[in-house]
Amino acid sequence: MTSTPLLTVAHVTHRYGAAAPPALDDVSLTVAPGETVGLVGESGSGKSTLARLALGLLAPGSGTVRFAGHDPHRLRGRTGRATRRRLQFVPQHPRGSLNPALRAGEAVAFALRAHGTPRRERAEAVAALFLRVGLDPALARRRPRELSGGQLQRVAIARALATGPDLVVCDEPTSALDRSTQHHVLELLAELRERTGLAYLFVSHDLAVVRRLADRVVVLRHGRVVEEGTTAHVWNDPRHPYTRALLAAATGLPDPAGPGPTRSTEPTENTTP
Ligand SMILES: Nc1ncnc2c1ncn2[C@@H]1O[C@H](COP(=O)(O)OP(=O)(O)OP(=O)(O)O)[C@@H](O)[C@H]1O
Ligand SMILES: [Mg+2]
Q1: Cβ of 44 less than 6 Å from ligand 1
Q2: Relative to the alpha carbon of 53, which ligand is closest?
Q3: Lesser CB count within 10 Å: N end or C end of the chain?
Q4: For the residues of 182-208, what is the DSSP string, one character each?
Q5: How far is the CA of 48 from the centre of ligand 1 (A)?
């Protein structure tokens, strides 16, 4: 893609303590508008650290992170808040990230308030967002403990969408879900992208999941980028032995995606036994 990147990570090194080995070591990547970049690697390879840096929850030890030209760790004042709304997050465990005392609709309404949606329009906007993520708006009255994992993940996605983001960082958004729910949530993320032109930084340890959604893949190992390329290229012709090992692990499992990366919103045929 030739457009100016939305997210630029340049030569970032990060340690969680002076004596600790680097969680990220000279890592660079970009995400263009509308692009989905998959970030894969085994546990401890630094994926969530990179996600936290992209969201501005951490400042890098060295190197730079820019979202829409701004340092996401220093989004202050009016411009900072406006920029922050364009950068959202879908977590691995929505149950932990949603306030248990708030009804699902209230969680989404809070995000709408931050976006400046007037109070009188919020109930309708919440219902519209629920429908957009495939949830019955009646579920807005439930509290997190009264919803399934898949429903909660849809609430978390609705909350992320409420502010009209350009980039959504998804950290293992489907790994806590069973396989069929995982499939539906991935389809939803793909469909939202088609409709709104969103970009995703999509973190997963599972190359098969990333393949469903990503235009490009970046492979992390011990905090370093060991391979990067278009999804089709990395999938069909992995260069690094580590990528081949990840691929073997991924293809050893049932692959509900069918052949090749898909951007289709149509139901894909499930070829698993
Ligand atoms: N808050 C922290 N304090 C100290 N060390 C940390 C912290 N968070 C992560 N680390 C370390 O940094 C390295 C990278 O961790 P990170 O969570 O980014 O990996 P990951 O790829 O997301 O792993 P997983 O797939 O298990 O989520 C690991 O060695 C981890 O132990
Ligand atoms: Mg992680």
Answers
A1: yes
A2: 1
A3: C
A4: HHHHHHHHHHHHHHH--EEEEEES-HH
A5: 7
Tell me: do 70 and 104 sit in the same domain. no
Q: Alpha-carbon distance 107 to 92, whole Å?
A: 17
What is the Cα–Cα distance from 193 to 214, expressed in whole angstroms? Answer: 11
Q: Are 43 and 156 part of one and the same domain? A: no
The continuous run of DSSP H or E covering 224 comes out as: strand 224-230
Q: What is the predicted pLDDT for the residue at 259?
A: 42
- 14 and 137 part of one domain: no
With a CB cutoff of 8 Å and minimum separation 6, the contacts of 190 are: 212, 213, 262, 263, 264, 265
Helix (H, G, I), strand (E, B) or coil at 111: helix
Tokens of 75: 């989004």
Per-residue pLDDT tens digits for 134-183: 999 999 999 999 999 999 999 999 999 999 999 999 999 998 888 888 99
> Is there a contact between 272 and 266 (Cβ–Cβ < 8 Å)?
no
For residue range 212-225, list pLDDT tens digits in order.
Answer: 999 999 999 999 99
Domain that holds residue 35: 1-86+171-273
This prediction's pTM? 0.90
Categorize the per-residue pLDDT at 264 as very low, low, confident or very high, splitting at 50, 70 and 90. very low
Q: How far apart are CA 136 and CA 145, in angstroms?
A: 17
| Overall number of domains in the chain | 2
User: Is residue 243's pLDDT more than 70?
Assistant: yes
Same domain, 255 and 183: yes
Confidence of residue 108 (pLDDT cuts 50, 70, 90): very high
Ligand 1, atom nearest to 48 Cα: 22
Based on the fold, state whether residues 144 and 96 are members of the same structural domain. Answer: yes
Does the beta carbon of 49 lie inside 6 Å of ligand 1?
yes
For residues 48 and 178, state if they share a domain. Answer: yes
7 and 56 inside one domain:
yes
